[in-house]
Amino acid sequence: MEELQKGGGVTQRRPGPPTGGQAADGTGAGGAGPVPGGVPGDVTAAVERALSTAAQLWSRADQGLEPAVSPIQLRAVEAIARFGRLNLGGLAEELGAIPSSTSRLCDRLEAAGLVVREPAPADRREIIVRLTDQGERLHGELTRRRREAVREVLEQLSPTSRGRLIDALTEFGTACDRLEAAGPGAVRAAGPRTA
């Protein structure tokens, strides 16, 4: 990693050589041109590497859950837990799946005792899905394991680094939320935001 001097005498560390065919100046392989969006390649490579590592960390934390569930089943449990209850169309949208596949997924989750389907209070023709007590326990254990895995990594960082990480992740999350709310291509068309 290369150290950079920033205003006020604060030293920051920048990720080492970029991967994925991008030069350190943010151009394509061999300096072929700028990376789309004007973000330097080393920044996107560092974020990609961190997200990939976090996904692996969570995947290891997910192993050995009882009852055993597949990754797509865990995603469904997480989505239902996040919203409290979802209709099949909403769950399908959250999973990026078609409703018939989502219905079969719910069959398996219901057979495992993790979800229950019931008529919606406002419209009894609509079916909603919610977690059972067992599904809530599974989600709680999943959350506990993932947080423990992340905590172990964070303990390796200095308090100052953790503070900077919180700031960066908060800003990154806000940017992700803006993109999600604006829809595909809307933020890119408006150009980058400046502080």
List keywords for this structure.
195 residues; mainly alpha; Arc Repressor Mutant, subunit A; three-stranded antiparallel sheet; two-stranded antiparallel sheet; 7 helices; 5 strands; 55% helix; globular
What do you see in this structure?
The chain has 195 residues and is mainly alpha-helical. The chain has a domain at 65-167: Orthogonal Bundle (Arc Repressor Mutant, subunit A). It contains seven helices and five strands. It has helices at residues 41-62, 71-83, 88-95, 99-111, 133-154, 159-182, 186-190, and strands at residues 2-6, 10-14, 86-87, 115-119, 127-131. It has a three-stranded antiparallel β-sheet with strand order 3-5-4. Helix 1 crosses helix 5 and helix 3 (88-95) packs across helix 4. The model is unreliable at 1-34 and 189-195 (pLDDT under 50).
List the helices and strands and how they pair.
Blueprint: E1 2-6, E2 10-14, H1 41-62, H2 71-83, E3 86-87, H3 88-95, H4 99-111, E4 115-119, E5 127-131, H5 133-154, H6 159-182, H7 186-190
Antiparallel strand pairs: 1-2, 3-5, 4-5
Helix pairs in contact: 1-5, 3-4
